[in-house]
Structures are given as structure tokens and as C-alpha cells.
Design goal:
With about 240 residues, the chain is an all-alpha fold. It folds into two domains: about 1-110, no CATH class; about 125-235, Leucine-rich Repeat Variant (Alpha Horseshoe). The protein is built from 14 helices and no strands. α11 (about 175-190) crosses α12, α11 crosses α13 and α13 (about 205-215) runs antiparallel to α14 (about 225-230). The protein is globular, with a radius of gyration of 19 Å. The model is unreliable at about 1-10 (pLDDT under 50).
Length: about 240
């Protein structure tokens, strides 16, 4: 089928119009407060974006991805969600992801994309192989992508490799450090003994280490006695 650019351009314009109709000023202000410095936010809630992505995925989504624009955070998120809805061919998902990941420009876009890559559960070894390249990236959100994808690998089999990645990362980006702290706290909740062993013997910088402890103590799944123990492990600056 011959690709008709003007048809897709009209579709993109319609999508932008739909997003603007769904946008809420109060939610835009709230989202902006969570993503400092991000200016191109419309204020559309994630469930509504996922619903739109589902509709696009039922049509000619490949041509949509070829011409989709990223003029707003929501339009960029939408692309990631459409990629996540492609669940039949892991190699196609990885090919599309390779093109998409360099576009990620904030933690919210990154994390929504990662959460949508449910195909990882079907092909954990192939995805594990794919994400390795991003731990050595010099780009803040490419590294964050790799770190957040470790949520899919909270098992004893992968834990030591995940911890090794945490130790290896030395990027100074705030959203890299916060990602490591957050994911490490989730590992503690799911693998407390292995994670505690790592917390006693790691190469994390003080900021990331202390943030990880803080996030563990903020969890409702950790009892008060354990929280007291964790607080006592804080490094003194």
C-alpha cells in the first residue's frame, strides 16, 4: 500500500485536537510541578492516553509512528504506549524502542514507556540482552530507562546482576540517581534479604544510597521495627 503522508498528517492533527480537548488546566499545573523544567505539557491523564493508544493500535499504527510528532509530552507518551501495545513481535518492539528511547526527555515519559513494555514478561532474556547497552550510555534518560526496566527482573536469578548495574552507574544526573534509589527500594520490598546484603556492601554514592534508605522507610509494606533499622544505616555526610 502506498503511504499517503497527507492522510497521516491529518490524523496527527486530529490526535492533537483530541489531546487538547482532554487536557485539564489543573492537571497540567499538577503535572508541571512533578516535572520541573518541562514546558510542553497539555495536562491529559494517563488512563485517557492509554485509551487513545489502544484505539491507534487497532488501526495503521506503524504509519502513525512513522509520522507522529512529539510537540507535547502527551504526544511523546502516546508513541511509547503504542509501541508497548505491539505484543506479537519482540524484534519489532525492540527496533521501535531503539528509535524511541533517544526521544525521552523526562522521567514521566521514561517510566510510562517502561511500564507499557509488558512484552518483557514473555521474552525476559531477549529484553535483558537489549537493555544492557543503556547502562553504559552517557544520556540521563537512556540510563534511567535501563534502570526502570529492572522492575521486570526482581528475582533471585537476576538480583546480583541488577545490583552490579547499580554499582557500575556513575552518572551525575538527578533522575538517574532517583531511579536507582526507587528501584532499589522496590527490590528491598520483594527481595529483602538479598537487598539488605547489598545495602551492607555496595558502591553507591552517598546521595543515592541514602535516598534508597529513605524510600524504603516510606513504604507501607515495611514494618516500623525494620524502618528503624534502615534509618540507622544512613551514611553521615
Amino acid at each position: 500500500m502506498i503511504y499517503q503522508k497527507d492522510k497521516v498528517d491529518r490524523m496527527d492533527k486530529t490526535i492533537r485536537e483530541q489531546l487538547e480537548e482532554l487536557a485539564e488546566e489543573q492537571y497540567r499545573v499538577f503535572t508541571s510541578s512533578l516535572t520541573p523544567g518541562k514546558k510542553n505539557i497539555l495536562g491529559v491523564r494517563l488512563p485517557l492516553l492509554r485509551k487513545m493508544a489502544g484505539r491507534i493500535s487497532k488501526g495503521d499504527w506503524r504509519n502513525y509512528l512513522l509520522e507522529a510528532c512529539g510537540d507535547s509530552m502527551e504526544e511523546l507518551m502516546l508513541q511509547g504506549m503504542v509501541i508497548g501495545n505491539c505484543k506479537k513481535d519482540i524484534e519489532e518492539v525492540l527496533h521501535l524502542s531503539t528509535s524511541y528511547i533517544p526521544k525521552i526527555d523526562c522521567w514521566s515519559v521514561c517510566d510510562s514507556f517502561c511500564s507499557g513494555l509488558k512484552i518483557t514478561k514473555l521474552y525476559p532474556e531477549r529484553m535483558w540482552e537489549f537493555i544492557q547497552q543503556y547502562f553504559d550510555s552517557e544520556q540521563e534518560y537512556e540510563i534511567r530507562f535501563g534502570v526502570v526496566m529492572l522492575l521486570y527482573y526482581m528475582t533471585p536469578e537476576y538480583a546480583s546482576a541488577a545490583f552490579a548495574h547499580f554499582d557500575h552507574i556513575n552518572h551525575e544526573g538527578y533522575y538517574v540517581k532517583m531511579a536507582v534509589a526507587w528501584i532499589l527500594s522496590i527490590y528491598y520490598i520483594n527481595l529483602p534479604e538479598l537487598t539488605m546484603e547489598y545495602l551492607h556492601n555496595n558502591q553507591l554514592d552517598d546521595f543515592t544510597y541514602n535516598k534508597a534508605l529513605q524510600k524504603i522507610t516510606e513504604s507501607l509494606k515495611v514494618d516500623s521495627q525494620t524502618k528503624a533499622l534502615i534509618r540507622g544505616m544512613k551514611r553521615k555526610g
